Amino acid sequence: MGVGQLPTTEFNDEELDDNPENHQDPRTEPGGEPMIQLLDSDGRRHDHPVFGAYVEALDAGKLRAFYRDMAVTRRFDQEATALQRQGQLALWVPLTGQEAAQIGSGHASRAEDFIFPSYREHGVALTRGMDMAQLLSLFRGVSHSGWDPQEKNFNIYTLVLAAQALHAVGYAMGVQRDAAAARAKGEVVEESAVMAYYGDGASSEGDVHESMVFAASYKAPVVFFCQNNHWAISVPTAVQTRIPLAHRAQGYGFPGLRVDGNDVLAVYAVTQWALEHARSGEGPVLIEAFTYRLGAHTTADDPTKYRAGEEEDQWRAKDPLNRLESYLRDEGLADDDFFDEVRREGQALADHVRQSVAKLEAPAMEDAFRHVYAEAHPLVQEELRWFQEYEAGFVNDQNAGEG
Fold first, then answer.
1. Distance from C-alpha of 348 to C-alpha of 163, rounded to nearest angstrom
2. DSSP characters for 262-321?
3. pTM of the predicted structure, to 2 decimals
4. Average pLDDT, the chain
């Protein structure tokens, strides 16, 4: 089938490129070096010809906000882990060690941008203004999600690996077409982008490949944000790929950038650049945030079974909170009073989520039948009646002595 016979009106023949080999090598794109870093593990600031300008525009208040959000997110993560260990949650997915990747990228997004998380993006949720207690209803097993995605442009958590990448690209293509239709009517369009979060393990799923094919083909305004935390449960990244994950973007024809995921300044700058690139109609970008999961994959996991303590110690020395604290103190941008106040804020959030979890009530089984379709369906109603009759057939405490 030739180009002119494509069974769709989405393609403009003039936009199709018959010479993909002429595309610019992503290594010559901004940030084509091995890894972008603006703040090293000792808290020393470094410049960059492209991304340095994004950080120069940050004032002291914004830098303190980065630290506050990272520290509060870590305290939230600790409390949620404790709640699971105490039987209040069925499962929890820790993020400790990945705070800079999430807070930096979350702050780089605009309110009109739409976020598609996986199941570990608690820090991103905080930057979107989510009530963190809402995240816990899913893990307590009393809700399929816990929030309305449209309220904060933050989609529900996706437990199926990589499925959110497909959703994000589809949504981005919708945003693209809505904007084109609005412009055709002479309306002013507020440009927006979509960001899809996933891990290094999900990068091996076919859904990510298919998402990138579609995103590249349609120049969809989407940023793929891969948090390479080195372990897909017990499988190390080295088993999944022989090259940096960011280099995979070259095969699809769009920029791929590897950033120090423990450097909140670099993550913020790179994500700002990527979102601007996507919003401007230049197409997708892949960001690989090179970070580390200091804890378990989930609370059902025991990382001591598959990785050495020495590796964890090496990465603790690169802690994202410690390096930003060192920078803030050395530059005179924060003092003991500030850090004490942050600790109090973290504890206040921990108290809030603990109290909220205690109030969560399990829904009735009938609710599951009500939400299968938007409107009542006769087959579902028939199944509900069967279930009710089945449940009524069991002996309960009230009639146990009767008969």
1. 34
2. T-HHHHHHHHHHHHHHHHTTS--EEEEEE----S-SSTT--GGGTS-HHHHHHHHTT-HH
3. 0.89
4. 91
